[in-house]
Amino acid sequence: MANRRKFLTSSAAGLALLAARPGAAAPAGPRANARGKALVISTWDDGIAANQAAWAILKKGGAALDAAEAGVMVTEASQNCCVGLGGNPDRDGIVTLDACIMDHQFNCGSVAALERIKHPISVARRVMEKTPHVMLVGEGAQQFAVAQGFPLEPAQLSPDAEKAYKEWLKTSQYKPIINIENSGNRKTGPVGGPQNHDTIALLAFDATGNLSGSCTTSGMGFKMRGRVGDSPIIGAGLYVDNEVGAAAATGQGEDVIRMAGAHTVVELMRQGRTPQAACRAAVERVARIKGAAAKDIQVCFIAVNNQGQHGAFALQKGFSYAVCNAADQRQLFKSEYLLK
Ligand code: GLY
User: Fold this and answer.
1) pLDDT grade, residue 173 (50/70/90)?
2) How far apart are CA 211 and CA 237, in angstroms?
3) ∠ Cα 218 219 220 (to 5°)
4) Spacing, Cα 269 to ligand 1 middle (Å)
């Protein structure tokens, strides 16, 4: 797969797309200029597989919501450090999963600290569709999942996660790892492999011009028991406003939550910024809030506006993301970043 990857520059992609019209009201029917511009963008460079699963739905004229769910299910089912039941556990040795989903009509659902369920994103969707609530957590989320027919998986770590956990126990230092996705290989330490991000967030723009998004993670490895990051929080890890655009985050969840990251990016697009500029302004806000401590964290945003123009920006070097559209289903972009 590696030799099929090619990195493009965001600006090159931007040139190929029409100028944004953020803030334009959504027409009642399909957007005239949306057809043919369907796309998927995800925070995961191994998200090519996720994007392709989402694309399989979009290319047949399917709904962005279905694409957003199907895409990240691929990552949830794969064995990796940071998403799904193969992910690294909390400091008590238990894998807890966070996920959320949002459609083009402000419908949203979320689960946090969910244990032993393979596809938290699908449980989040059920919360959205089958309950009067937005968010279920912990034992209640698991009860709901089981009642909905989701099988309870064995309470065991994957071999890689077990090895990483044992390694971590040698020091038991709770220290967020910057760029976990790029800092090594879990087989040799408690970090992710070079193609792993801490979260997969995926935004889908369908042929009718509707947007939806999904976000799913096992959260920060070796976190305190009960810790919840940004990924299941609507407005932090993910936000969709069909009249403007959609945005999602990866990186240090605490610092995304404190500035309502994804919602901030969408509001910046509403004010007229391109997705790229909105992501950059949001990252700059994180940097302002963190001050000197910004150098110790990673935060990244992806965004797509209601015309299908996309962009991303990161605090630190090393964030890459995947894009899929009719022209090319396997695009990879190296994100621009703030701290040079
Ligand atoms: N961004 C994922 C987390 O902080 O849990």
Assistant:
1) confident
2) 16
3) 130
4) 23
Residue pLDDT, tens place only, 67-76: 999 999 999 9
Give yes or no for residue 231 CB within 6 A of ligand 1.
yes
Q: Is the CB of 69 under 6 A from ligand 1?
A: no
- Let me know if residue 58 belongs to a domain: yes
Question: At 325, is the pLDDT very low, low, confident or very high (cuts 50, 70, 90)?
Answer: very high
Total number of domains in the chain: 1
Q: CA 106 → CA 72, 141, 216, distances in Å?
A: 20, 21, 18
- Asked whether residue 328 is domain-assigned, the answer is no
Alpha carbons 335 and 320: distance in angstroms, whole number: 5
Residue 140 lies in a domain: yes
Judge if the beta carbon of residue 220 lies within 6 A of ligand 1: yes
Q: What integer pLDDT is reported at residue 187 of this predicted model?
A: 39
Binding site membership of 261 for ligand 1 (Cβ less than 6 Å): no
Task: Please choose from 80, 196, 256 the residue to mutate so as to test ligand 1's pocket, defined by most ligand atoms within 8 A of CB.
Answer: 256
Look at residue 45 and tell me whether its pLDDT is greater than 80.
no
pLDDT mean over 80-96: 94
**By residue range, what is the domain housing residue 105?**
30-241
| Amino acid in position 218 | S
Question: What count of Cα atoms within 13 Å lies in the side-chain half-sphere of residue 216?
Answer: 35
Cα 218 from Cα 229, distance rounded (Å): 9
Instruction: Flag whether 57 is in a domain.
Output: yes
CA 68 / ligand 1 centre spacing (Å): 18
Half-sphere exposure of 306 (CA within 13 A, CB side): 23
Rounded CA separation 114/134 (Å): 15
